[in-house]
Structure formats: structure tokens, C-alpha cells
Amino acid sequence: MSRDEVYERLNEVFRDVFDDESITVNDATTSDDIEDWDSLEHINLIAAVEQEFGIKFNMGQVVTMKNVGEMADIILAQTGA
Amino acid sequence: MKELEYPFDSEYILKKSKKLKRELMEGADRLLPKKIAVLGGSTTHDIIRILELFLLHQGICPSFYESEYAQYWQDAMFENPALERFAPDLIYIHTSNRNITAYPAVSDGEAAVDALLDEQYEHFRVMWEKLEQTYHCPVIQNNFEYPFYRILGNQEAVFRQGRIGFINRLNEKFYQYARTHGNFYIHDINYISAAYGLDRWADPFYWHMYKYAMCMQAIPEFAYNLSNIIKAVFGKNKKALVLDLDNTLWGGVVGDDGPENLEIGQETSMGQVYAEFQSYLKAQKDIGVMLNVNSKNDYENAVAGLNHPEGVLRPEDFILIKANWEPKSRNTEEIAAEMNILPDSLVFVDDNPAEREIVSAQVPGVTAPDIGTPEQYIRVLDHGGYFEVVGLSEDDKKRSEMYRANIERKRQQQRFGDYREYLLSLEMTAQIAPFAPVYMARIAQLTNKSNQFNLTTRRYTQSEIEGFAADDGYITRYGKLTDKFGDNGVVSVVIGRKDADGRTLHLELWLMSCRVLKRDMEYAMLDSIVQACRGCGIGTIMGYYYPTAKNGMVREFYADMGFTRLEEGEDGSTVWRFDIPQDYENRNTVIRVAP
């Protein structure tokens, strides 16, 4: 899977979770950039990303993840692409 | 909404909750509004998010009060103006084994363990009593699920010091409280977590990251199970099953294969599966669920199949057997009409997805779950929770008999020329009296589920009902009707509030079960109210009609009762007045009223 494909699918997940078709994420996107993305919605987002890519983040990763770019890095590493 | 019908896709619901809510809110003004306080011992945000969807789906439009994180006990026990202002219709206490503050130590003796058990229990008991005193509303309390590890291994439940043993005993104390207190319901998360899979359920990731008592993915099943209790408390349970026969109640097609060749009974594996399903349905009947048949078959063949010696269900277990070649949607409508219940009280069970599709499309309101393959039927229906039990009244146990008697009455009616003659032949006896303790549960149940013959559609909890009964400012009447076919139970409820002037009674509630329509029971009720009014110097009775989507049948009720219309609102609501004449004569002449 290429990084572009990961982003394509991530955009879908973000749009579903926040019910906003206009969202497009990139490496630098953080919770500050999306209005509804608070600590509570974060849980739901993580679960939805895990489901989309068939992966599981461990606690250490969730705690240290700083932006969507790092999320994409973990997804690429775990899906072995 | 199909996406929220059991069995559902939990991950889809979690991900799409915002979209689902948006769609559900479009019709929300027609739903029953309820205020629900969620007092949590762990994070409740996503539980409320998903619970809201299921409640909307079940016909309830909730608004929520949510305690601050883990403040359930403080919120309940101490002065709480915010919660008092909110005035909850229901309180849900979301605690889990993470809220057990101390477990026995391995060195503890029996007395120490018992003392600890009492201490943990008392923490909850005082809270429940405080809630009952302060809010007078139904309370739903989680029991405790098992921990995800076992210090004492397989002996964890055996030794008194083991946590599972401790939790079992604590749970039993909760159940004992529930058995002895009305309006208090256990939410069995011990069962739900086991059915879900305890290891997945208790994933510590979600506790340590977000302080959730269970994993995110389990929340939809959890919330659905909880919504089933809530909808049952507010009178939104389903009432009847509408069952297909071929490949639903037995394997094979009775018309083609002949009754002797059906798969039912202990001879084959498939036969056993169907026999177990029939046993399950028979047990449903015993708790008050009404069974009906809706099958494309000749009637004789259907009955021959139901008389199969290895079968568990018999033709007499069913209220109505519709076995014909009409569309199933039409049969379903007729079943609803003949039983005098609304289609949204029906669950249609058919192995054929096309039939389910037709029925759910043509008869709005009917639930037609995807029941899967025969070995899954029981689980799907059971976890669907359509008939969630919140109490077992005598009426529930006898319901099928009552409805059968009703249909028998209808048949008899056709043989009488004169309607009054028919009514007299029913040999009806009514008991009409102020609310009595033994009937409080049934009265509360009726106020919450009667939609059609209901003038004001006011919903009351059991404690409110008990409040009216004890209040001199109110005249209350329940009516119980018996006839030669059987006991109909409590079928009518009237609540009148005395005006401050002492001369007028305002009828806040008048309802009647549709199973006794056109029996003159309403006249007998009026007679009793008039009598009560005279006894305390009241000369005028005011009636009110508030229209809803379902109570059109009583729009002119007060006119029929001899009231005069005073005003009509823009929304169709009407106000009526009845001055009791000096020479009032009892309206009812066909029912013998026992004092």
C-alpha cells in the first residue's frame, strides 16, 4: 500500500467519524485542525482507523502519536507495505 | 432503521454514529421524550452517544444528564441542584468491577470477607435509597462483570477470598434488592460481557487509556442491551411474534413433503435444532409473548405440521393461524387488526429474506430481523430483546388466553342480532375501585403503553401512580373486567384531579385497553367517577383530549359520554364539560359492577 492510498482511506475514515465530507488530512494534520476532534472523539477515531486497516495500535503508540503523519507511518509499518 | 436492528454491525455504528443520528433526528418530534440521567463510575461519553441512537430507534427521544467522570456516588448522595432541575424520568448507574474499592485479602477469615461484602453493598444500597427518595423514578443498575484475571485460578469462585466468589455474592445482594424493590432494574453486564467474550470486553487498553469499563467495540451491544430495558420500562416492548412455518418452525415444506417427512424432533440434527427453537418459542409464550402463524400453505397442511408428534408447539399455542396464499404483508396487517394491536408491536420471523423485505416494506413498524440460519434463530431473537422482561405480572402469564378468548368473543358476536343481547350474554362483571397496591404495577404499565384509547397520553411511573393513590386531591379508579370467557385483568384507568374550588374534577387521564373496546366498560367507569364526585360535593367534571398520531379513535369520546365541548385548540385538542345532573342514572346497563 502506498502512502497516497493510506491517505485516501484515512480521509474516508475522518469524514465518516466527523460526518464532514470536506475533511482532507495530511502529514501535519493534528486535532487542532478539526473542530470536533477532542479527546473523546479521539477514541472513536482510533477505533475506526484500526478497523479500516485491520491493525491495532498499542498504548505506547496512541500516547505518543503527534499528528496524522505519524499515524500513517504506523499504519504503513504494520500493514507491511 | 435497518442499521440499528439486531444483529447489527457494531463497527459501522461506531464509525457512522453522527450520520445515523442526523437521520434519526428527522422524525424525532414524533417520539416519546424521556430524560435520562447517566451516573457513571467510568467514562460514559460513547455509551451515551450510542445509547441515544438505539433509543431513537426504539421510539424514545432521550435527553441526557451525564455525571462528571466517576462521580456517580457523589452526584446521587449530595445536594445536586442540576440533577434536581433536570428531573430525570430514569436514572442509570453505570458501574463496573472497576468500582469495587476493596476485595478480600487471601489472609482474610470468613468474618472479614463478610464484613467487606456488606461494606461494598451498603455503599450502593444507601445510594439507591437516596435516589428513590429524591427522584421517585426508575433506576437501572449494572451488576458486576467478572475480572479478566484470576489470582486463585479455577478456585477463584470457590474460595471466599476469590474475586469471582466475592462478585457473585455481591451480585446476589443486588438481585435481592431488585426482587424486593419496584422500579429498580438490574442491567446484567455480567451476562453481556460473557456473551461478548470477557478477554475482548475487558481489554485493559480502554481502561488505562480512556477509563472505559469495556472495549470500544463492545459499546454498541452493551448500549443496545441497556436500551432494551429502558424501552421496556417505558412500555415500548413488542407484544407478539408472527411466525412462518416451513423452514422456520420445522425443516422442509409441509405441503410438498407431507407432515410425516418434516425435520422436527430428536431423530436428526436439523430436527433437533427446530425442536429446540419450538421449545424456545413455547417458553416465550409462557412469559406473555403472543404467537401467531403467517404461512403460505393450505390451512389443513399448516395444522397437520403443527400437530407433528415430535413438535413442541401445538395449534392451540397460537392466537391466530393465517395459513393461506395471500401476501404475507396482508396477513400481518390482519393479525394486527384482529388482535387490536399496532403493527409496531409485531416481530415477524421468517427464514426467507424476500418475505421479510415485503413485510417490513409494506407494513411500517413491523420488525423483521435477519434470523440467519436455523441454529442461529434462538440467539438472534433472544439477543434482540424484543420482549425484555421488567416484571412478570399475572397478566403477562395469562395474556395468550385473554387474546384467544377475545377472538372467540368476536366470533360469537356474529351470531347475535342485537348488540346489547350479545353484551349481556358475555356475563360481564367489573371491579372498579380506587388504585389498590396489588395493581400499581399493572396500572403504571397501562399508562405507559396505551396509545389508542388514551385521552391525554400522559405517562406515569409506578411511584407517581402510588403518589396519586395516596393523595386526597385526586380521585383514582382502575377497572377490571371479567366475562364468561375469562378474566381480562385491569383494563381501564382514570385519574381525576380535584380543583381547588372543591366543586370540579379535572380528568388528567382516561385510558382503556383496546382488548375491551365496545363493551360499555367506559360507561361503568363514568358511573363510578360520578359516584365518587357526588360523595365529595363535586358537581362538574372537565374532560381533556390531546390528539396524538395514535389516539384518533377517542377524538369524540367525551361527546359520546354526554360532555359538552367548550373549546378547541389549533392542534385539535379539546376541552369538555359535564355537569352531573341531579337525576343521573347509571349509563352502564350490561356489566355487573362489584363494589
Which labels suit this protein?
heterodimer, A: 81 residues, mainly alpha, Non-ribosomal Peptide Synthetase Peptidyl Carrier Protein, Chain A, 4 helices, 59% helix, globular, B: 595 residues, alpha/beta, Rossmann fold, Aminopeptidase, eight-stranded mixed beta sheet, five-stranded parallel beta sheet, 17 strands, 41% helix
What does this structure look like?
The complex is a heterodimer of chains A (81) and B (595). Chain A has helices at 3-18, 39-53, 59-64, 68-78. Chain A is an all-alpha fold. Chain A has one domain (3-78): ACP-like (Non-ribosomal Peptide Synthetase Peptidyl Carrier Protein, Chain A). With 595 residues, chain B is of the alpha/beta class. Chain B folds into three domains: 2-233, Rossmann fold (3-Layer(aba) Sandwich); 240-384, HAD superfamily/HAD-like (Rossmann fold); 397-594, Gcn5-related N-acetyltransferase (GNAT) (Aminopeptidase, 3-Layer(aba) Sandwich). Helices cover 41% and strands 18% of the residues of chain B. Chain B contains 23 helices and 17 strands. Chain B has an eight-stranded mixed beta sheet, sandwiched between helices. A five-stranded parallel beta sheet of chain B has the order 2-1-3-4-5, sandwiched between helices. In chain B, strand 15 (564-568) and strand 16 (574-579) form a beta hairpin. In chain B, helix 2 packs parallel to helix 3 (45-57) and helix 3 packs across helix 11 (219-233). The longest helix of chain B is centred in the first third of the chain and has 26 residues, at 110-135. Chain B is globular and about 80 Å long. The two termini of chain B are 49 Å apart. The chains are: A mainly alpha (81), B alpha/beta (595). Chain A binds chain B through residues 13, 16-19, 40, 43-44, 47-48, 51, 58-59, 62-63, and chain B through 11, 14-19, 22, 45-46, 205-206, 208-210, 212, 216-217.
